[in-house]
Amino acid sequence: MQTYDVIVVGGGAAGLSAALLLGRSRRSVLVCDAGKPRNWASSALHGFISREGMHPADLLTTTRRELQRYPTVKLVGDTVVDASRQGDRFQVTMATNGRATGRKLLLATGIADELPALGGIETFYGKTVHHCPYCDGWEHRDEPIAVYGGREKGAKFALMMKQWSADVVLCTDGLPLPSAETRAQLKANGIPVRRAKIERLEGTGHQLERIVFADGEVLPRRALFFTIGQFQRSSLFQRLGVTVGAKGGLNARWPSCCTEAEGVYVAGDASRDVQLLIVAAAEGACAALAINKALIAEDGLG
Question: Is the distance from CB of 77 to CB of 63 less than 8 angstroms?
């Protein structure tokens, strides 16, 4: 069983960014990636300087190619099914590639978004149905936009979307309404509320064109943004003693990205409020520096 300085679980922007700096620091690194990125449905990434509009898969392919010049970095396309501390080392078990041990462990496992249970949503998700306005709002500026969500969260999201379009409708799909005060704020800002259950989404190709309600009403829309929740993509943190914060993210200190579990670090969407690719890459870099510093100290060089 091979031992690495660092095992990185997750090969997205955070994990690969960490692997790059660790590799350049002559650290032996194993990156395990299941190949299921959060933005799997998107055709373009945004808000990442010098990479605006690039296909997300191209970013990962390019980065993996760059890592090939560092012989101490090993990329494995596999799922880590278990992780545990074994003395002063961590042991991970992969689905098909056996086991490996590492001195430090970086969880860059990300999160997954809950999709509304709406007929036809899979056809439009990532193209004209989205969860992040910073990622995709510009592409739908000044278009008729629907916001899906209930309670205060859905209403506040609808108010926020007025930055991108004057024509915003909040669709609660039968979910609870926000407070009377917030409903008054919606009205004051010209945001109608549709409370009826949604039957399905319709359009041509990947272009959303209308929302069909269970009562037969039809709402023409060119985009839908939703907010209903997200969850940790991996449960490994539970085995390692990493706790979850009030908002569902893994507790990690900033900027070191270390956790209360000694030797375990977290970077990327799994831990932070700002869930953008460029931020995930930055967190991976911060985690790499903190990990290398810890290893230097352990080796008596610090």
Answer: no
